[in-house]
């Protein structure tokens, strides 16, 4: 499969690594060799989808979710071209992890209302109780909320 993808995208380097990932700076897709024959093929196609779509970075949490959806759609197109089919259940399970992440980050620590980012600086503000909180820019961090002031919170 790596050989087929290299023919489709000769300017992208496919390399074994610790996880499946697209690095736009290095123009490299890493993959876990031990999983390449199982669901890993789908993950590899997903990361290739990011590369084909030119995904470089994201500015907001919702933009990241949109990019993940788009990469899975591109992966399905690529899979079809290669004579494969990606399980829709697998795609939705993967997207659920981002949806859960977004739901947790957007939940007001004071009243539980879900809201949207106020700006592009990882800051949220509650429409209901007017609390404000900041979240880590990392999509890999676990959410921990600590009270910063009367109605201000910071998520580490």
Structure write-up:
The chain is α/β, with parallel strands linked by helices and 156 residues long. The protein has two domains: 2-105, Zincin-like; 110-156, no CATH class. It contains four helices and seven strands. It has helices at 2-8, 40-53, 61-81, 88-106; strands spanning 13-16, 21-23, 28-31, 123-125, 132-134, 145-147, 152-155. Helix 3 (61-81) runs antiparallel to helix 4. The longest helix has 21 residues, at 61-81.
Summarize the model shown:
With 156 residues, the protein is of the alpha/beta class. Helix content is 39%, strand content 15%. The chain has 2 domains: 2-105, Zincin-like (2-Layer Sandwich); 110-156, no CATH class.
Low-confidence stretches: 142-151
Shape: elongated
- Residue share in helices? 25-40%
Radius of gyration: 18 Å
CATH fold name of the largest domain, please?
Answer: Zincin-like
Strand order of the largest sheet: 4-5-7-6
Strand content: 15-25%
Number of domains: 2
Level-1 CATH class name of the largest domain? Alpha Beta
Distance between the termini: 39 Å
Briefly note the structural class of the backbone: alpha/beta
